[in-house]
Every structure is written in C-alpha cells, then in structure tokens.
Amino acid sequence: MVRQALGKGLDALIKQTQEISEMTTQEAQQAAPAGTTVSKIAVNKIVPNRFQPRRVFDEEKLQELAQSIKEHGLTQPIVVVYDAGLDKYEIVVGERRFRATQLAGLTEIDAIVHKHLGDQEMCALALIENIQREDLNPIETALGYRNLMSKFYITQTDLASYCGKSKAAVSNALRLLELEPAIQEALQAGTISEGHGRALLMVTDPAKRDMLFKKMNGSKMSVRQAEDAARALMFPTKKPAKTAKAADIASFENDLQAALGTKVEVKCGKNVKKGTLVIHYHSLDELDNIASRLKHKML
C-alpha cells in the first residue's frame, strides 16, 4: 500500500480537538465548535478510548484530582463521541479527568460530544493528545507511534510533524521497543529513564546488556554513568602492546559513538595519517537516525 500523510481533514480535526480540550466548561457551553454539542452525561454511559495509548495512571495524582473536582468541580469538559451501536459515549480526550470524576463519586460529567469520528481519527487523536501533553511513559509513546504508523502507513517524518517532535526523537523512541520485556517494564514503571534505555541500546550483547540493566536497578546510576558503563562493556580498554591505536583516536571513537548512539571504529593503516572510519548500523531506521544526527552536527 502506498504510504500517505494523515490528510488535511484529520489535521484540521486534531487542531479543533486540541482547542476544545483546552476550553473551560463555560466556554464550551457558550460556543460549541461546529460538529459538536455540550452535554452532561451519566458516568456509567461512558467507556474508555479503545486506542488509548496510556497504560499507567498515577493513582495518587488521580486521588488529588478527584479531591479537586469534589471541591471545585470539573473546570474542563472531556471530549467524547457517541457510539450508537453500544449506546455509549467513548472518550476521545480526558480519560484521566473521567477516572477522577468516578473516584469523586459523581454520577454525571460535562462533555463535548463529537457527532462522528472514525477508528483512525480516534487512534490519532488519542495518541497525539497524550504525546503533546507529555502524559505517556517512553514505552507507551513508542507503542503509540508504532500503532499510528501501522494504521496510517505514514513515515517517521510525517509522524514527527503531526506530533510536534523531531524525527530523531521518534526514531529513538521506536528503538526502545527493541529492548527486552523486563527493561521495557522498568521504563514503564519509571525505574529507569528513556536516557538509560538509550544507553542500554548501545550494548548489543544481550548478556552484557542484562548485566548493565541489573546494575542500573541496583544503584542510582545517572544517564551519563550508564553511557560510560555501556561504552566500557562494548569497547573494553585494549592493552597497549596489542594495539597501535593512539589514546586520542580511542577518545575520538568514544565521543563519536556517544554522539551517534552506535558503534564507531577508526581503522588506521601503517601510516596513521590515513585510515577508515566505520559507523555501524542495524536497521534502515537507525541509519536514517545517524544521517539526521550528522546533518544536525554540520548545520
């Protein structure tokens, strides 16, 4: 299937949904956008978004929001679409507010109702709204990117543009899905950060990667320390007698590897003034990401 962009219609819908999701209840009641209505809807008539990329909700923060809703009411309505087949309203934007309203014990919630949205539109809106609010953990974001790309057959460049991210950020996020399940679970739980995940990707040997991951979990290792540890595992210091590689060349390799996020080798000939620079990559996406980083450095 030919890859295609999301389209101007969805682009306009995304912008409209972002605008109405930021309205107060009073603003929405005074000027409902075209194609929407504002209503009070029974909480038990609402179901979560099937395409919600967010898997983890902070219970403590939900309780705080629920208490605020009890005291001050819901200041921003959620956004829903009516499903005639189920006779239910499906959430488009605002699942956290909906959950907090349930915790607050309220039976109704203010909602802006879209007349109709397709599955692709629901998927795109759920992902992009969460990403732009930075509500997702790194794995949720990566899974959301992959889901949206597979459903819309779009490139990383198109996706980056719609999400307001750089192409490198999208590529780096997707690479986290190459990590083992236990590491992905730690990223979801917040035990390690996205930076720690990228450091682990530098280690291509699974056993060494697992060893570094366990070391991260057992200590308060900074991202910089994790990167240094990853380089040490991948490129242990060689004995001077077995190499003619100068210390400054080895340092250059390490610096370039850190900048590009992949293995780099400088192979010197008999004449150290000449040689070959080798940059390793393991997928076309990774090659694209390396090229993007090099261009950025040259600008």
Summarize the structure.
The chain is of the alpha/beta class and 299 residues long. It has helices at residues 8-21, 25-30, 59-72, 95-103, 119-132, 138-152, 156-163, 167-175, 181-189, 194-201, 206-218, 223-234, 247-260, 284-298; strands at 36-42, 46-47, 78-83, 88-93, 108-114, 264-268, 275-279. The chain is elongated, with a radius of gyration of 24 Å.
Describe this structure in words.
This protein is of the alpha/beta class and 299 residues long. The chain folds into three domains: 1-178, Conserved hypothetical protein from pyrococcus furiosus pfu- 392566-001, ParB domain (Alpha-Beta Complex); 189-234; 239-298, no CATH class. Helix content is 54%, strand content 13%. It has 14 helices and seven strands. The strands form two sheets. A five-stranded mixed β-sheet has the order 1-5-3-4-2, with helices on both faces. It has a two-stranded antiparallel sheet with strand order 6-7. Helix 10 (194-201) runs parallel beside helix 12 (223-234). The longest helix is centred in the middle third of the chain and has 15 residues, at 138-152.
Descriptive key words:
299 residues; alpha/beta; Conserved hypothetical protein from pyrococcus furiosus pfu- 392566-001, ParB domain; 3 domains; two-stranded antiparallel sheet; 14 helices; 7 strands; 54% helix; 13% strand; disordered N terminus
